[in-house]
Design a protein that fits this description.
Strand order of the largest sheet of chain B: 2-1-3-4-5
CATH superfamily of the largest domain in chain B: SGNH hydrolase
Low-confidence stretches of chain A: none
Low-confidence stretches of chain B: 1-6, 8-17
Mean pLDDT of chain A: 91
Number of strands of chain B: 5
Number of helices of chain B: 17
Order of helices and strands of chain B: HHHHEHHEHEHHHHHHEHHEHH
CATH class of the largest domain in chain B: Alpha Beta
Largest sheet of chain B: 5 strands, parallel
Number of domains of chain A: 2
Shape of chain B: elongated
Strand content of chain B: 5-15%
CATH architecture of the largest domain in chain B: 3-Layer(aba) Sandwich
Distance between the termini of chain A: 17 Å
Oligomer: heterodimer
Radius of gyration of chain A: 23 Å
Structural class of chain B: alpha/beta
Distance between the termini of chain B: 84 Å
Order of helices and strands of chain A: HHHHHHHHHHHHHHHHHHHHH
Largest sheet of chain A: none
Strand content of chain A: under 5%
Number of strands of chain A: 0
Amino acid sequence: MLFNSLVFPAFLALVAAVTYVVPGRWRWGVVLAASLFFYALFNIGYVGLLAAATGVAYVGGWRVHHLAPGRTRAATLAVAIVAELALLFVFKYFDFFASSTNGVLQAALLPHLGFLIPAGLSFYVFACVSYLVDIFRGDLIAEHHLGRFALYVSFFPKLLAGPIERATHFLPQIRRARGFDADGVTLGLQLILWGLFKKVVVADRLAAFVNTAYQNPGLTSPLDLVLGTYFFAFQIYCDFSGYSDIAIGAARVLGFDLIENFRRPYLATSIADFWGQRWHISLTRWFRDYLYIPLGGSRVSRLRTVLNLLVVFVVSGLWHGANWTFVIWGGLNGLYQVLYLLTAPVRARVGQIVQLPAGLAAVLSALLTFHLVLVAWIFFRAASLTDALTIVARIAQAVPRLPDLVRNYAFSGGVVLSLGLIGFLLMVELVDEHRSIWASLRARPVYQRWAVYYALLGALLLLGTWNLNQFVYMQF
Amino acid sequence: MESQSIRLHAVLTAERSTAAQTESTTARFIRRGGLFLAIGLLLYLGVYVFADQLVYGHTLRNRFFVVKTAPLPHYDMVVLGASHAAVFDYEDMNARLESLTGAHVINLSVVGSGVTPNKLLLDYLLVNHSVGSVIYVLDSFVFDSPQWNEQRLSDAHLYDRAPFDPALALLLAKTPATRAELSDYVFGFSKINNQDRFNTDVSDDEAQRFGSTYRPVPQIDTQRLKFLYPNGVDEASLNRYLGEFDDLLQALDARHIRISVIKPPLPERLYRQLPAEAQFDARLVAIVGGHSAQFHDFSLMCNDERFFFNPDHLNRAGVLNFYASCLPALLGSSG
């Protein structure tokens, strides 16, 4: 059952109704049962894997909590983390590792397992690892109630593609069992509606164009590649942030708060701002807290800091998928971060000499940041490194001719509509950057609010692409 | 920046209401929610009516539309089949057939459809019309997979221009293969959501390629065959759909509707590559022989290479040649 299926609203309404009818102490049971049912609909076998990850984290967390500080405690933590990551390795990376090894050794030494990556595996394994580390660090007391802990791992709104929730934030909410909150439910429904709009009206419409452009880049016209790349930037954003909005909204309907995952990323004025504050926040923070800081973060030598940044971004790329395209994507973003760090004095100096108006400087910075991210997206989306390099080369060759190409391009109705939707989205985000759209909406008379809701519902009905395209991040 | 960007959380974690307030806000929420839904349903109804009316202005080929708007109470001839039968309805081909035969002809063929969709359409036609004879343009591939039968009926495009008709709703409810589509049809979701709503439903084959001639390319032929027979010949499917075909012939016999089964012309090079076609023909002849039906195999007649606009579909010249050279044999035997 996908969030963008017509069954999901009915499922959510049913779960919410039952959740608020049963006594508070049983709510975790209702939501856990719903979550397992939700996951089992994808593949009943996946539930076993989810149970394994949950069991390892539960037992490991319990042991780590009760052991006195020392080697045994650290070893227990290491064993539990390795067991969690082993699940990820076997199901997600083994075949990539096997083909790379076999390729280097020019021999078929390692077999191919051919497993399909279970939906949400990377997300719930990371949730389990953060739980274990938080206990080890003393930031969290191990949860003794297996059912509540299982709900933390398997809560269905966040199960398939995050946000990667921390136990320190989520477990207290399960224990508290909040009652019905009309404002919260309304806000949840608003987020679901907006998330669906982004996914079904914008992302899936753009996906059709992007898929065609990227299918055979050698034969696609350069301008279609340029358009396809711009469209992909918005497709991936609307797809993933749409998912996150629906997840946060669905959780809110059930009385839970999930952390925010996106904050208008394409308005970022630097690459550090993009990654640090705006894009896939829950994952970036996970890597910051559980990899970057343990490696020494920025409190080490400049060279070590640079290496730490590169390691974090390459691993982050690899987290997205077992493919060299993701490694390059991660590496490129790491390189951007390193350059941003190393050029700080130069940029400050230039800023003193060329004193641009603050607004203009922000616009130029946002455009530069966006285009750096855009180049990296080519590697993320391309089917292979060869394809990615072909696309980069063909776009680079076409740049000087771009005005002519645009002038002679036959813009179809679909492309014009897609550009219009992107413009609309950016306009909304610009407004939202200064004052929350939802907060503004709350202050408006009811007929204005409802007009907005009906307009969004109308767009879903009339312009939505309801062919049940899976969310991109579900494959990670 | 940080404080601005956490506004959403500020809203999310806003101070909770007291218990008494919660009770009254819950009641208010339910009341308002009900009103919101009621207005939404009214708006939906308006959009539904608009979408249904729009269908009448922009539809030519959708077969449910064709049946719903069929002006005559009686048709002398109904053409059934898949895309090889659809070419007889391209441009003015049906009008020419009517003028050649002096009969009222309605073409209900559906691209990529086997006996299950064809039977549904014929049943729909027979709800409010009478029929003299059926010309079934038959391809072996449609008997090899549910993808051309039950699964074909789950294609939303079949219903996105189907005007609302209680008779069709009833038929969809009664037909096991279409029960899942009933809610879509009744609530008109595909119709409302049709992104092509302001264009006429003439296919690219009809609009752009029907007048052209195909120059054979072996790779394209191979791809085409792979598309038509993705799993080769599947014996279980073959038995099942030949059984359904047998039932259809029996039902038509019972209603005293004459039936002619024809195999359409195919380029010889392609025909020779069809998997197990001779065995299929033998089984087909045995089934047809058990009823008062006629069988005409035009596979290797009227099939000059210049008569096709792609590997296997007759072009305009091909259909006209078929009418001139092969049709008389068909009309002569079927009366």
